[in-house]
Structures
1.
Amino acid sequence: MARRRIIAGNWKMNKTPAEAVELCNTLKDLVKNDNVDVVYCVPAIDIVPVVEAVKGTNVKVGAENFYIEDKGAFTGEISAPMLKEAGVEYIIIGHSERRDIFGENDILINAKVKKAFASGLKPILCCGESLALRKAGTYKEWIARQIKWDLDGVTADQVKNLVIAYEPIWAIGTGETATSDQAEEVCKMIREIIGQMYDAATADAVRIQYGGSMNAGNAAELLSKDNIDGGLIGGASLKPDFGQIVNA
């Protein structure tokens, strides 16, 4: 089965609303590609202006975080219904920065995956290992555990609409990139785990991104691999280079 490629930009905590609109206008003609799903995952304050700025283009809008309750006394948080009404389609869940800096664990991440699906949002579920785990040779067990915890109780039909982003933490924002063979090894393993948890059809349908310092220079080689269906792009998503990745 030919899986549709998905290139998502994770803007992280960058761009004021005015700057966000300016970036959308800069990228508008560079990211045109009807054969690729293009997503901008932007800070909450930028969502409304970005949704407006990309109207009539091929770009979808994603959010970077949300909380599992619809409303209530959760100061500083944002809910799935709020995001949905604002025009958001995708949601990043379990990014290493959320796990490491903000202490999100797999139990919360699992609840977020379920809540996203229940709310009509498409999760981009992140997984990946630290440099210590990579050097210790235990990274496969670590990633397998993340996938199994994070998808506990999630149905096969939901997983078919899931995006999984493999992000080796040692290659995020460091300029280090996993080789295309290292990235393919893990993405293939993730697909095999989905096959074991569900079935071959689900494993074949799930889209798996690589998310560790993919850029205009290495995107084509990474995307040529059988099990890499796209990229979750950090720093390069804030530059015109993002267009080259979309069209790699």
Note: The chain has a mean pLDDT of 96.
2.
Amino acid sequence: MTGADRGLGFAVVKELLKNDFCVFAGKFMSDYTLLEELQKEEPNLHLVELDVQNPEHMKAAAEEIERISGKLDLLVSNAAIMSVRTEKPSDIIDGNRGLDLPLLVRFFMTNSYAAPLLVDTLLPLLRKGEMKRLFFTSSEISSVRLQRRNGGMRYGMTKTALNLGVRMMYNTLRPEGFTFRLYQPGWMKHQFPDGSLAESAIVDPADSAKEAVRQMLEDRMDEDRLVLVDYLGRELSF
């Protein structure tokens, strides 16, 4: 899975290990060592260097999975950039501050295009798997119908693009028996390098991860319908 260093990704890793999965966790953030500490206790946890903006990292991860497991049952695409610190806002249209195009490109690569690129790289392994399930972390901000904000343009645009990419992958791979999950994890508390959580926001990543893994592992009656479901189990417009 990608984006496993902290927050939802790290909590999902722990939940999957509880369910006896062999987990390949993408390691990206050098200032977080939560995965390394967990690995000391979990022989079924394998760390792979995985910057989703680097196709060579994806190829290396595929080779490692092939070497250890020979197949992949479940792909969790979770890596994303939500915000960055800049001297002034650069994703609001007001004619004065200017939009940061290089930063927008970085957001698109991480939040949107990395997901289909990763699926394409790992598809031979996924075709050998039994579950054939693809899970993508999206957001309520991705909904064109529900969008009411004027800020956070980069994040909103790139999550909407992710949804479209997932739809197109669904159109291609569903006939092969692949099943898809689009998940809205809620406004989660930020996790710091020591594992503690910020007071702001409302959702504990561990709680959202439990619901995410439930959706990952349970079959649905309507697998022939692509839906966006949130951390409370509600279907959202997208």
Note: The first strand starts at residue 23 and ends at 27.
3.
Amino acid sequence: MQIADRLAPLQTNVFADMDRAKAQAIAAGKPIIDLSLGSSDLPTPPHVLAVIAEALHDPATHGYALFNSTKDFRIAAAQWYEQKFGLAVDPETEVLPLIGSQEGTAHLPLAVMNPGDVALLLDPGYPSHAGGVYLAGGDIYPMPIVAENDFLPVFAEIPQSVVEQATMMVLSYPHNPTTAIASLSFFQAAVAFCQQHGIVLVHDFPYVDLDFAGEPAPSVLQADPQKTVSIEFFTLSKSYNMGGFRVGYAIGNARIIKALRQVKATVDFNQYRGILRGAIAALTGPQDCVIHMVNTFAARRDAAVSALRAIGWPVPTPDATMYIWVKLPDHLPNDWANHSIDFCTELVAQTGVALSPGRGFGKSGEGYVRFALVHPPAVLTAAIQKMGELVTSCA
């Protein structure tokens, strides 16, 4: 029996690896404080749930949902962008509903890459961005992002031979895992670079509202208002706490949207129509829930930063996202400062505290760990104290 060679690069995954480590800790009787996954613990807004619940009793929602049946959702998505960013969006040709934005970022390489083409990806970056490229038979050029450059890629450092083979660049700001933000001028430079070299510019944008400065982070489409080379992915998982409902969408260049729609039509239809109705209620209804979500994560961020500094780990205060990207101190025992997977594995085994090792997000992530702020402040503080006690006991 044959298994496809294209699966070989997908054998390891940071989340799967940590899931096994958590399972072993649970089997050993350790209570788990899971800070390894960015799955919000906050509830979906009641007015959204009410719309979905009402739809359950409507037989018109029970059949397959093809593209034309998503029109109302596409209109709501276009209007949301127009109101937030002042961008004109055609809901018929420039919007595509998705079963979570990860579906879109994973399938897009099939639409814009041929085997042997190169994708320019952030390193560290979100693992599924690489997975889709591998499944499409593409090659990856990792663009290192480091603290000295504010975790932004330097386009001038990409070798010309790589640029000539590149057909896609993936950005994502506010950034997971580093929490970095990008300015509109940075996106303008990225658009100009991709226009010059005929590269599709992909922006994964789940943390648009999780900017603690109080203003939405810039959209790449503000830098490319004519949508010449760009496509942007949004999910309702973060802003509206709808991760389990798997609802998102893509907005951008009509040719790219059409190509992605062709791939999607081969693989699946759309979500249950009641979920799309709930998503419309989220996008068009009161936004108090978004403000509450941002304030909640800001308070958790402050508590976690304070607790980390209290155990002697100096960390900057993140400006965005639901994470803290922490550089492992040089003084850690067992050379853990250079082996984040070993540190996280030992931490969950000894204390039940689960983090994501930076190495799992790419080579440039080594030496860091990511905290997901998915518990109340008291739990975050207790977890960090446990971590400090482990380090002290092993010194």
Note: The domain at 5-43+289-394 is CATH 3.90.1150.10 (Aspartate Aminotransferase, domain 1).
